[in-house]
Design goal:
Layout lengths: L2 E6 L24 E6 L14 E13 L7 H14 L4 E3 L12 E5 L12 E6 L3 E2 L4 H18 E4 L5 E8 L6 H13 L1 H5 L26 H9 L4 H8 L1 E2 L4 H5 L8 E2 L5 E2 L2 H4 L8 E3 L8 H20 L12 H14 L5 H9 L21 H11 L4 H10 L3
Parallel strand pairs: 4-5
Antiparallel strand pairs: 1-2, 3-6, 3-7, 3-8, 3-9, 5-6, 9-13, 10-11, 12-13
Pfam family, one: Amidoligase_2
InterPro entries: Amidoligase_2
Length: 407
């Protein structure tokens, strides 16, 4: 990656966004500083302002009550709702709203991809956050995540398994994507896949629930420059989302879902899930989700993953110069890039993102194996759960559609 010196503006000193009033000012009187950065973009005389994003978090966890032995998931759902309500956290049960959930409250539901152990009163659960603005009053959404996780730990045993997850769904604050924005994020997803692999535990690199975009049936084996060309040539959101999540009929997932030989198909369980751009209809409406992070049993973990996704999305859609597919991505450069965006966005507790990056373990390829390639086989349990998930509700999509109606 090319190296140059980049002048980082003070935290909070942005050019005015299109959705801010002209009288809005930040009053941070810090001296500008210079920093040497390995930057994966060509140097620009002036940074292009990035769009802000709305996001929604899905926390997939294994939960058991500390005081009650719930024999069914229904009782556990109700207790979680009661405890959240007592501390003033708006929430509801997905089962109580069979047609549409609220975009302004937490939604509590069982999770089909996480095995439960009813004999031990432990159940796979999913808590879906309200939609929030990423860089507008970030202290609010960070406090909300801390409050939810603190309440869970106070009244429940919260653990994670290999099937647990932290999914971060994003959409531009305007409510819809431009095709250029979606393509820019898709390129970053492919380009930085090995770097992001280093941030997650090994089991999340071969998970059937977070398959490789870079090594899917459409992009596998192609040079990065050719991958970029294929993204650039996609004329529609539907075409882009299909290529990012193109699943082979002969893969373990295809076999589990009964795909006909040669009938490759769009599937949502990839590291970066672009299927939401097709599910919500034409015109760029929908969310893109980063599905690879493991379960977050603590607020610092959840906040760090949201920071990473929000900063990467803003950089991808606002960097201006694009990525050079002939340059090899470097984890150190990506980390510096993300941390400067966190500072630019004036995010509180930036050290959480820094800690996440510092804990990275570079991926070492095994002999004869392609780095990032999915597992050759899946368990009988995963086979069954893939079929169950086909008919599961898309709670985030329901929240997103309510959000657009200004609930």
């Amino acid at each position: 990656m090319p190296h140059f010196t980049y002048v980082a503006p003070e935290a909070g000193h942005h050019r005015r966004r299109h959705d801010e009033p002209a009288t809005h000012h930040h009053h941070h009187h810090r001296r500008r500083r210079r920093a040497s950065v390995h930057y994966p973009l060509p140097m620009e005389p002036e940074r292009i302002e990035a769009p802000d994003f709305r996001f929604c978090v899905e926390l997939g966890l294994v939960i058991r009550s500390r005081k009650r032995n719930h024999k069914t998931v229904t009782g556990l759902e109700e207790e979680i709702s009661t405890q959240l309500t007592r501390v003033g956290i708006p929430n509801h049960l997905a089962s109580a709203r069979p047609t549409s959930v609220s975009s302004r409250e937490w939604t509590i539901a069982s999770e089909l991809c996480i095995p439960s152990r009813p004999a031990d009163y432990r159940f796979g659960m999913k808590l879906v956050s309200p939609f929030a603005r990423f860089s507008k009053r970030p202290e609010v959404w960070q406090a909300a995540l801390r409050s939810v996780l603190h309440t869970l730990h106070a009244h429940f045993e919260v653990t994670t398994t290999h099937q647990c997850f932290t999914h971060i769904h994003i959409a531009p604050a305007a409510g819809y994507w431009t095709l250029e924005q979606a393509k820019a994020l898709a390129k970053s997803a492919l380009y930085f896949e090995r770097c992001l692999d280093a941030l997650v535990p090994p089991y999340r690199r071969t998970s059937v629930w977070a398959k490789s975009n870079r090594n899917n049936v459409y992009f596998a084996g192609l040079p990065m420059a050719q991958c970029f060309e294929r993204i650039d040539k996609q004329p529609t959101f539907e075409g882009l989302s299909a290529r990012m999540g193109w699943c082979s009929a002969s893969s373990p997932t295809g076999a589990a879902l009964g795909a006909e030989p040669g009938a490759d198909f769009l599937h949502d369980a990839f590291r970066w899930d672009f299927a939401g751009l097709s599910a919500a209809g034409a015109g760029g409406f929908g969310t893109v989700a980063f599905r690879q992070p493991p379960g977050s049993a603590s607020a610092p973990e959840a906040v760090a993953w949201v920071m990473l996704v929000g900063c990467l999305a803003r950089l991808s859609c606002g960097a201006g110069g694009g990525l050079d597919p002939d340059e090899k991505p470097q984890l150190k450069s990506l980390g510096e890039w993300l941390l400067y965006e966190a500072e630019w966005s004036a995010l509180p507790h930036k050290a959480l993102l820094e800690d996440l990056i510092d804990r990275a373990v570079p991926v070492t390829p095994a002999p004869g194996k392609v780095v990032g390639m999915d597992a050759d086989a899946i368990t009988i349990d995963e086979d069954q759960r893939l079929r169950w998930k086909l008919n599961d509700r898309n709670l985030v999509l329901e929240k997103y559609m309510r959000l657009l109606k200004l609930e």
